[in-house]
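Troubleshooting entry. Yesterday's outputs looked truncated, so today I'm pasting the complete records for two proteins to confirm everything comes through intact. If either block looks cut off, that's the bug. Protein one:
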Amino acid sequence: MVEWTGKFAYQQVADDLRRRIADGEFADTGQLPSLAQLQKTYEVTVTVARAAIRQLTTDGLAVSHQGKGAFLTPDASRAAQLADPVGTVAKLRDEVAQLRSEVGELQSEVGELRQRVATLGGS
């Protein structure tokens, strides 16, 4: 999963976790994946996985408890969204496009209803 982008591997993992946090992926349990899970998912060493978690704790998104794992802070989702303004803007653009599509469909349905009402009123 980690690619040559000019960023350190731990930063790439932390960035992806930050995106997943912003998307609410870990909201149910509040717990981040274990180091072993991170190693497997991102195909990285334990050192890289540990550094990614450390980055998230430094950023205030998570707290780590030795032997128990890393857990989200109460405002982690909001903080993660603020940390990724480009991703947030892209997500908002997608939502706006979806809303425009839905509004267009509703306008079409309203037009059809107006025609039916006009037809019924003329009979």
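Protein two, checking that the full record survives here as well:
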Amino acid sequence: MTTEAVKNTASDRLPEHTPRLAIAKLAPEVYKSMIQLDRAARQGVDPVVLELVKIRASQINHCAYCVDMHSKDALAAGESVERIVQLSAWEEARHFYTAKEIAAIELAEAVTVLTDGFVPDEVYAKAAAHFEETELAHLIAAITVINAWNRFAVTSRMVPGHYTPGSHR
């Protein structure tokens, strides 16, 4: 099979789904408040760490819109394709990340998946060892905010693929 035959074109792809609800238009005060909360949460958090945790939480929550958005934002900020691709299997690819980034990713997973009803002490302790208290508080807030965004986007079926990096800042 030739390379040309392997490539698919837009006409070969399945159609996009239709969004269910335009939350930004129907609940503008909620949407504006979420943007303000997001802006406040990210203060003092390393932008690379921030995008990594947003991508990872969005992967866990199956939020294609947010995976698309934060992968594009990370790429625009200089993040490598390799580190973004490996994020879904970070436990097998730890060598792509710093110890601080791994602590943040583990914390993001623990906050996102509360199946045990709490964030394990060892996960929190590892994050606390790598982040100053104020930065840790903001990181936890940012993880909480991306989880809320994921729930809005997944429930309203926001369509991935059309986001332009930085357009929601």
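Both blocks look complete. Sanity check on protein two: The first helix runs from residue 3 to 6.
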